[in-house]
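Researcher: I've been going back and forth with a colleague about how Peptidase A24B, FlaK domain-containing protein might be arranged in three dimensions. Neither of us has a model we trust, so I'd like an independent prediction. The organism is Halococcus salifodinae DSM 8989, in case that matters for your notes. Sequence below.
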Amino acid sequence: MNASVDLLRLLALPVLGWAAVRDLRTRRVANRTWLPLVALGGALLAWEAWTIWHGGLDAERRLFVVRVAVSVGVIAPLGTLFWWLGAFGGADAKALAAVCLCFPTPPSYLLPTSPSLVLPFTTVSGAFAVTILTNAALVGAVYPLSLTARNALAGRITTTMAVGRPISWERIPAIHGRLLGRANGLDAGLDLDALRMYLAWRNTSLAALRAAPAEGRDPESLPTEPNAPGDGRIDAATDGGPRHGDSRATEPVRDATASDRESVQNSADSWGAAAFCDDVDDAYGATPANLRTALDHLTTAESVWISPGIPFLVPLFGGLCLALAYGDLLYAGLALLGVL
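Model: Here is an independent structure prediction for Peptidase A24B, FlaK domain-containing protein. You can compare it with whatever you and your colleague have in mind.
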């Protein structure tokens, strides 16, 4: 055990905690956030490897290699795989890789006030990243269970009661998540960040579209010079429409020529959905078809079902803290049940 390495690993906690809070509030974490963690994890891993290789027994060396191979070579790439499959966001994958690099082996901490007590309290065997990941999965399961209970108590017994909840349309522009498809009677859902991009692109708001939906559907109502759509982040100063004072909202994406307008009119592009998707390279998977149906629903319904979603970075941070303080929740639970 290298006490100095284990103590220095704790420097990653405030960074990961800050990133988890920011991801929960804004769904945005800058790439530069992970650079200090990668540097810290790489340096501590090299230090620990040098210490074990020059002072450890053969069995300790073999165990160290296995633990690092599982953490860095198996668990960390899983984040990239899940991101590629669409199950993770980019920040989630990077956070998992950073955690695996910073905590590849189980740490051990003596409590100054009680020298006889050692953290984690329960036994942690194998790769520590596996413990963190299983803890994160258990922590993450709390949210859908709470959604299920909340919907059940309200009498909302549906197939989506574990992943979504109804909210008033007024809250849509200022909330993260996804407009559910089946729960709202739609063929497909829509990421609410894509909706905010569309509203910024049109230099309008959801309230304005609801006030005059016929005009909003008319292709001739499209701006001659659409605004830059941004990335869909929430702007607390507006309801999701034009972001005043934001230079990106006043720079045109392209000039809508007469031929462009004629093409839009001839294609009967309701809501200008196709024109938006043509202008924007990536609007979180939005297509003209699901954008149109989502806008049709959002401009008429008083409440809609959304899936708020919790960024995996949040339960990952919770799983890490529990792993450091308590240990392996799954192992302890199975032991309590007499399985182990």
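Researcher: What would you highlight for our discussion?
Model: I'd start with this: The radius of gyration is 25 Å. After that, consider the following. Residues 164-307 form one domain.
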